[in-house]
Design a protein that fits this description.
202 residues, alpha+beta, four-stranded antiparallel sheet, four-stranded mixed sheet, 21% helix
Length: 202
């Protein structure tokens, strides 16, 4: 868990499942981070209170499986039919079985980050319902529902996908240049410029 505060500010985090709080100090750029031990997966709702100059409490937290649903247009294909996109015909019958309070879904809005990883994004965790699942990934939803029904444990699904993207768009530049497996393919592209995208386009 992490966030931003005033440089040097002491942050105290108290999860509902722990007897003691954990503290951290914000660095010079205001960023702070810490690791929390969590119990085994449980259906019991939990909360976390973050205290510093401000006090923030996040409630209705579940502990269980968390999966990243990444990929291209096949991962973006939604459960519900999209009238303005003809090929997105949906799987609306699946919405008849979409009320799962223990499944939570989060969609990361599409945003380019050419200068490196971003610290945050716009988005909101939603409880899985026919309404919230309508625009969510059909593959992700069906996968998460099956996991929940088989494991009987909470499931969190994070959708971060964009059609027509290359694997290079999702990979750090230093990884591509320094990893011996990725490097072979990387240099075959004739990389000479600042971005792999420039090379692919040429």
């Amino acid at each position: 868990i992490g966030g931003k505060a005033e440089p040097g500010e002491t942050i105290t985090v108290k999860p509902s499942w722990a007897a003691k709080a954990v503290t951290a100090t914000a660095s010079g750029d205001g960023k702070w981070t810490m690791k929390l031990k969590t119990p085994r997966a449980t259906m019991k709702k939990q909360s976390i209170t973050v205290s510093g100059e401000n006090i923030i409490t996040v409630s209705n937290i579940l502990i269980g499986e968390v999966w990243l649903c990444g990929g291209q247009s096949n991962m973006l294909f939604p459960v519900g039919r999209q009238e303005d996109v003809k090929w997105q015909t949906g799987m609306e019958k699946e919405l008849q079985d979409a009320n799962y309070p223990e499944i939570r879904i989060f969609t990361v809005p599409y945003c380019l980050a050419p200068d490196g990883e971003r610290d945050d994004c716009e988005g909101k965790w939603l409880v899985c319902t026919p309404e919230s699942a309508y625009n969510f990934s059909a593959v992700g939803f069906v996968f998460g529902r099956r996991l929940f029904n088989e494991l009987h444990t909470p499931v969190g699904l994070i959708l971060s996908a964009k059609g027509d993207t290359h694997v290079e768009s999702w990979t750090k530049m230093d990884v591509m240049k320094n990893n011996h497996l990725a490097g072979a393919s990387f240099w075959k592209l004739g990389y000479e410029k600042n971005t792999i995208w420039d090379t692919i386009v040429e």
